[in-house]
Design brief:
The chain contains 15 helices and 19 strands. The chain is of the alpha/beta class and 456 residues long. Helix 5 packs across helix 15. Bound molecules: adenosine-5'-diphosphate.
């Protein structure tokens, strides 16, 4: 096996493949080590929507946006504890990263956007079928085209330094052996978050215990964080672990049919049939509100017109069928019937819908101040989906500087070591806004790749 390259990338998710492609395009030889039998990580199982201020669809729809507004949304959405310098880089480069995905990697985007919670305007691009399959397939195809070798089933276990502390390689398990890989220019850690590592979750945040389900890929065990910490890297914001508010109540999986909410066309109600939170609030705020309901679940309500307009059924037909079959989603001709399926108070729900429709007419949600366009509910059939918050994203991780270099506990750069993606911390503060992860992993994956390649 090949155990030597200019740049060695750990992890073949979105950040890792973006880094590998960019390093290669900048003249480096590149080797990618991936723990799992397949590429993709959490990126693959996500909806892969990508926030990009000033994008082509905003232009078409006449939505005004700016780098500054995006910057402010990221900072505010994470309670202003993120590293402003790094966030600035993310905000400034999100659009060019999206254009790179579109034009160089040939990722196809839908021609509608979604309005993710906590953003000030609609700015999130949606890849084909609102699925991470599209960007991952295209990134993988680009790696193949460029002749980038990806060794799967090869978990990295240890970073290797020379006497001066410079990173010169990595140890990894391959085919039952421990191999030493040599990196002439540098190592890029892109191993993702630690949402699937129960012990690590509890160590940093005791609330995130075994009772909470998870949306994460089994590969998200924080290996890169552990490896970097072992050589003195600084970790930041480790206690901030995000739950996604509307996941499968039985399995914890992400539910894409529920994206009708992000199309601005659904309301969240409780068992009493009442709204209890702004539907486009931050994920942490909605999750907390759900936890405080009588039964700990939320019920997403919408009508047939919203189903058709949002396109979520067509895009996620298998998920739709499965949810119906398991009784987690109900379709019924009347509000009463739909409510009865889950034991929701039907009279209250009817009143809630009537009141919401009044707000739509007035153009103002007087109860929760829901952002975006307000669209009234019409005729049935009606839909209600039951869901629960589940662990989704770990905001904390390795501290990087704006050049994607890893910073140690003394505040100095660890030479020849880069990190990008969910493995890093300090970018989303206490709470990541929806669709900011793909922007983050692409922006810093590309920066890490370019800088490692140039690091001769
Ligand atoms: P990001 O969104 O930051 O790219 P992902 O979760 O999409 O994160 O990708 C991280 C990838 O890193 C996954 O494919 C995961 O299996 C892989 N990975 C995790 N730990 C290791 C490791 N020790 N060695 C190599 N790859 C790893």
């Amino acid at each position: 096996v090949n155990t030597e390259a200019d740049v060695i990338v750990l992890g073949a998710g979105g950040a890792g493949m973006a880094a590998a492609i960019t390093a290669k395009e900048n003249g480096a030889s590149v080797l990618v080590l991936e723990k799992m039998p397949m590429v993709g990580g959490n990126t693959l199982i996500s909806g892969a929507e990508m926030a990009a201020p000033g994008n082509w669809l905003q232009e078409k729809e006449g939505i005004e946006d700016s780098v500054d507004l995006f910057y402010e949304d990221i900072m505010k959405g994470g309670d202003n504890i993120a590293d402003p310098e790094v966030v600035r880089v993310l905000a400034e480069n999100a659009l060019s990263a999206a254009e790179w995905l579109r034009d160089d990697v040939h990722v196809q985007f839908e021609d509608n956007m979604l309005f993710f919670g906590g953003h000030s305007v609609k700015r999130s691009l949606v890849p084909l079928n609102a699925s991470g399959v599209e960007p991952i397939q295209k990134l993988k195809a680009k790696c193949d085209e460029l002749g980038i070798e990806i060794q799967t089933d090869t978990p990295a276990t240890k970073l290797i330094q020379d006497e001066a502390g410079k990173v010169i390689g990595v140890e990894a398990q391959h085919d039952g052996q421990t191999l030493t890989y040599t990196a002439h220019n540098g190592v890029i850690i892109a191993t993702g978050g630690f949402g699937s590592n129960l012990e690590m979750r509890k160590q940093y945040n005791p609330m995130m215990d075994e009772k909470i389900l998870s949306t994460n890929s089994v590969g998200s065990t924080g290996d890169g964080i552990t490896m970097a910490e072992a050589i003195g890297a600084k970790l930041v914001d480790m206690e901030w672990i995000q739950t996604y508010p509307t996941c499968d109540a039985e399995t914890g999986r992400l539910l894409y049919v529920g994206d009708v909410r992000l199309d601005g066309r659904a309301i969240l109600v409780n068992l009493e049939g009442k709204r209890f939170v702004e539907e486009l609030e931050r994920r942490d705020v909605i999750s907390k509100a759900v936890t405080e309901t009588t039964d700990g679940f939320s019920y997403l309500f919408w009508d047939e017109a919203s189903m058709v307009a949002s396109g979520v059924r067509e895009q996620h037909q298998n998920e739709y069928d499965d949810l119906i079959e398991r009784g987690m989603l109900v379709k019924a001709d009347t509000i009463e019937e739909a409510a009865a399926h889950f034991g929701i108070d039907a009279e209250n729900l009817k009143a809630t819908v009537a009141k919401y429709n009044e707000y739509c007419e007035k153009g103002k949600d007087e109860e929760f101040n829901k952002r975006g366009d307000l669209i009234a509910f019409g005729e049935g059939p009606y839909y209600i989906m039951k869901s629960i918050p589940a662990i989704h994203h770990t905001m904390g991780g390795i501290k990087i500087n704006p050049e994607a270099q890893v910073v140690n506990v003394e505040g100095n750069v660890i030479e020849n070591l880069y990190a990008a993606g969910e493995v890093t911390g300090g970018i989303h503060g206490t709470n990541r806004l929806g669709s900011d992860a793909i922007a983050d992993i692409m922006v810093f994956g590309r920066i890490a790749g370019a800088n490692a390649a140039a690091n001769k």
